[in-house]
Amino acid sequence: MNWPIVRILAAATLLAAFAWGQPAKPSNKLVRFHRVSEPREGAFTMLVPDGWSVQGGVYRVDPSRAGGAGNSVAAKVDFIVIRDAAGTAMTHRLPDRLYKDMRSSPAAGMFPPGSNYNGMVVSPPMDAMSFLLNVVLRQGRPQARNVQVMAKVPLPGVARSHNQIDRSMGLTPDFQNDTALVLVAYDEGRTQYEEVLYTDIQVWGMGVGMWGNKDTYMARAPASEFAGLCPVFKLMNDSTKLNSQWIIRELQSQSARGKIIADVQQHNQQIDAEIVRHRQATNAEINNQMQLLLADKTTEINPHTGKRDIVPIYNGQGAQAHVFFGNDGTAVLATDPNWDPEKDPNYARKGYTMTQE
Q1: What CA–CA distance (Å, rounded) separates 242 from 19?
Q2: What is the pTM for the complete model shown?
Q3: How far apart are alpha carbons 263 and 152 in whole angstroms?
Q4: CA-to-CA dists, residue 87 to 49, 101, 192, 215, angstroms
Q5: Cβ-proximal residues to 224 (8 Å cutoff; 6+ apart), any chain
Q6: Which pLDDT tens digit goes with each residue over 282-307?
Q7: How many C-beta atoms lie closer than 10 Å to residue 349's C-beta?
Q8: E strand residue ranges, 4-43
Q9: Which residues 6+ apart lie within 8 Å of 266 measured at CB?
Q10: Residue 313, class by beta-carbon neighbours within 10 Å (0-12 exposed, 13-18 middle, 19+ buried)?
Q11: What does DSSP say about strands 145-154 and 176-188: parallel, antiparallel, or unpaired?
Q12: What is the H or E stretch that residue 277 is in?
């Protein structure tokens, strides 16, 4: 069974720990977040900064237009959150796509790399870093100049966790994952940007010659703002919540489209527990692998949900960032350590409570 939407959003906290570069300098700015729903099918919700907008969402590939059904069984997610029309600060969750490796096929000569085989682009498998730099970056930032790769971070523990969650959801033991983060800097127009790229590459076994990208994500900002906006990107990712009813409908339709017989309800009951376990394992591995690149962090508890959130500490000038959750589902990220919502007339008496360590 194909479980892309579950894997995409189960990995929403994979980037929760990527406060790259130098710790952001303290400021008196507040960033208020409101919750938005994926606009097309309501597949998930997430917190988005006030004033930012969303584009895209869930879509489906028409096999008659794609040249085959290879990418048509599962729903795709192409979801962008932008601060302004130019996308100077933005996050982009890219769709999962399947590719076909024809090298061992007798028909290989008829399908050279780059051609279409049953709706899939023909290509030998790539590792995660190669895919990020040669496909995601090139296609997503075609105007980028003076590209510098600032960091390459393999995440073998995250890949193992993907392997485990694939097994738990009924995929064959031959599926193998490779996971990585890459940090780049580049010029686009008159602006210098920094951007973090993440993906998991899943290679299918059993001799089928198929592979694909999972959970592919980009987040960028002008270089001077990138470190300061990492907590914003992080909170957006942390806050992503699946719509369980949408999952049930999607799995049922996947079963019909893929002619798969499965007990959808039974699998659905396992999803929440698997997501929690997956997040714990993958976040721990990311923290270990990226220690030299991350700002200090602390684990805090959302006072309204009782759930733990990883919140970055701002070491610059000794100040600490705090996240305040409102009882109406909104949140505020405060980089002023002295800010008190009850003393701010815009936030007083609205239930904002700081996370507790």
Answers
A1: 24
A2: 0.78
A3: 40
A4: 14, 34, 13, 21
A5: none
A6: 655 554 444 445 444 444 455 556 55
A7: 8
A8: 30-37
A9: none
A10: middle
A11: antiparallel
A12: helix 264-289
